[in-house]
Amino acid sequence: MTYHLKSDCRSWLAIGTHYSAWFSNVAETTAVTMRCGYGRARGYGHEQEAGVLDAVDRRILAELQEDARLSYNELSRRVNLSAPAVADRVRRLQDTGVITGYHAHVDPAAAGLPVSALVRMACFGPGCLLRDPSAQDLPEILQLHRVTGDDCCVLLISVASMTRFEEVIDRLAEHGRPSSTMVLSSPHPWRPLRLSE
């Protein structure tokens, strides 16, 4: 499992979406992770603003989010473009940071971590959780987001038992006041980004 900490929340297209989008079900398809790209990229005989997606880019991203294992030949067939042109576009989307990686969705409960919770941390100053990389590296922390408001950050945690959850909360309490909300179910465990035309 991987998790990411980004102090610049603008880099995440998914930031601010419903917390239920943080969860993942077991799936036979792999997923593509995306974020906003900045800067300029050259392609198709002209310069194009990185992060400015045309209709073909959006179709490619839609297909890859459904199944990132698609071959360039199959992807080219679905978007009505040649395989070399599709490969060039995918490389540009990777180089500009729109596509940030490929991974499999794993259901924590099916993998032996049935207890999940959202934990809000009220911590400030030198003891802040965000200032302690070792605390952020706890394997039970699947996601960590710095947020606005009274809380410093919000974490998604999955553990094997309530005993282990208590231990993690005690560890987090060294940095501030944790406030947890147990997850009962996730009606929308994950959904692809729907990019407007």
Order of helices and strands: EEEHHHEEHEEHE
Query: What does the radius of gyration come to?
Result: 19 Å
Strand content: 15-25%
Based on the structure given, which CATH architecture of the largest domain is correct?
Answer: Orthogonal Bundle
- The averaged pLDDT comes out at 81
Widest sheet: strand ordering? 6-7-5-8
- Please write the CATH class name of the largest domain: Mainly Alpha
Secondary structural class: alpha+beta
The shape is elongated
Gap from first CA to last CA: 33 Å
CATH topology of the largest domain: Arc Repressor Mutant, subunit A
Instruction: Work out the number of β strands.
Output: 8
Describe the sheet with the most strands.
4 strands, antiparallel
Contiguous runs where pLDDT drops below 50 for at least 5 residues: 1-29, 36-48
Number of domains: 2
Summed up, the helix count is 5
Polypeptide structure, described:
The chain has 197 residues and is an alpha+beta fold. The chain folds into 2 domains: 28-104, Arc Repressor Mutant, subunit A, CATH 1.10.10.10; 108-182, Alpha-Beta Plaits (2-Layer Sandwich). Helices cover 24% and strands 23% of the residues. It contains 5 helices and 8 strands, in the order βββαααββαββαβ. It has helices at 55-66, 72-79, 83-95, 133-136, 162-172, and strands at 30-34, 40-43, 46-49, 99-104, 115-122, 141-146, 153-159, 177-182. The strands form 3 sheets. A 4-stranded antiparallel β-sheet has the order 6-7-5-8. α2 crosses α3 (83-95). The longest helix is centred in the middle third of the chain and has 13 residues, at 83-95. It is elongated, with a radius of gyration of 19 Å. 22% of the residues are buried.
